[in-house]
Every structure is written in structure tokens, then in C-alpha cells.
Amino acid sequence: MAKKIKKKVQAKKTIRKSSSKVDQWLKRESVHQRKALENASRHFDKNDALTVHHLEAIYGQESSFGLLRRKRGMKGAAGDFQLERTTATRMGLSANKENDQRFDIDDASAASAKYLKTLDDIFSKKKKLGQGIQSIPIKNKSERIKFVIAAFNGGEGRIALAQRLAQKDGKAPDSWSVVSEYLRKAGASAAKVNEIKNYVEDVTKNSDEFSHKSKADSSVKNKKPKKESLSPKGGHWITKSGRHILIGD
Fold it and tell me: Domain total for the chain?
């Protein structure tokens, strides 16, 4: 009898130890963080497969929900979503030592959502990216999101070049499992290739887990903006300094 009780205790300990990263991140997620991510997801629409849970997964992957943010004003990746300064400014944020909006969850999540949506647009149609590189359209939204996640980590130019190289070899340029094998030829180091592949796999897996465990409302992207009583009839969303806000028409 004593042995059975001991086994049950050990089993419970094993279950406790096996909590996932998503479980750990959700314990850390504040209401403010969740609302910021939900609000940012309004940048997504019916034409993409992106949801607030992808933002949660990327937020966790990049800074463990705000724990690992690095230094303000850095040229490289920093802040809640580890955006590089050039990407942050491209998405409308200030990224200097005096005012680095990459460290504001509202600003950072909105900019990251904008960037993800920009990437989804790039891989939904032919898009010139410079240096003679052009993206190849991916009609399947669920497959396209893998390219979007990969580009968030490795850059859209590198992913589009890998598409072209796959197509040149007669392979499917709209299949991530195929295109990911051309990342090395597209100029990524062996270490970076592994990083991109693992990033896509982890974010995809974790976003699915978030969809089953998180309190975040994934339907927010499909909801019309709430009309404030002080606003005139009508209204639409704009992004100002990386923040998604409702203004009256």
C-alpha cells in the first residue's frame, strides 16, 4: 500500500514538472498585456489566419512575456517583441534611448501586429522586395502563416529568395517544408537555418496551445470598433505612434 502511495506522489510531482512554457507565460500574463495583444490583433482581418494567440506565442518566444527585453535605444533586437530598430521605425515607432516604444507593450504589440500583417500581405501576392527579389503568392492561409512567422524571425527577403530558389529547382515555392530546405542557399548560416525552422515550429505549436488555454479573445480581430459616446457616428481605426486607436469619421 505504501509503495502505491509513493508512486502516486511521484506521478503528481512529474505532472507538476511537465508544465509547458505556455503555462508559465500565462501565469505571468497581466490583464494589461492581454488587452494590448487583443487590441493589436485588430490589425488582422478575414484575409489572414493570424490571431491574438500568434501574438502571444511570439511575445513569449521573443521576451518571455516581457522578462528579456535588453537595452533601450539598441540598434539590434530589443523590447517586448525584440524588434530591430529599423523594423520598429518602419512600423511607426520611436526607438531611441530617450523614447524607445519597443518597451511599451501597447506600442510594441501594435507594431508587431502591423509587421505580421505586412508580411502576410507580402506572401499573399507577388511583391517586389528589392535586389531583384520578388515574393511568390501562397493562397492557403494556414500554410502562408508559416512563411509569415519565418519572415518575422529571418526577414522577408531571405524567405522570398528561398522561394525563388525552390521554384528554380522545380519544387513547390508555396510549401514551407520545401522552401525551408533552401534557407542555406538563400544566405542563412547553418545556425540561423535551425533557428528559423525551430522558431516556426515553436510559435505554431505554442499558438495552438494558447488557443486552448488563454483567456485572450481571438474574435476581436473580427469585431467592429466600439463607438465611444463622445465620438460622432461612424469611426475607423488608425495607427498613431504604433498605437491602434478609434477616431470618428
Answer: 1
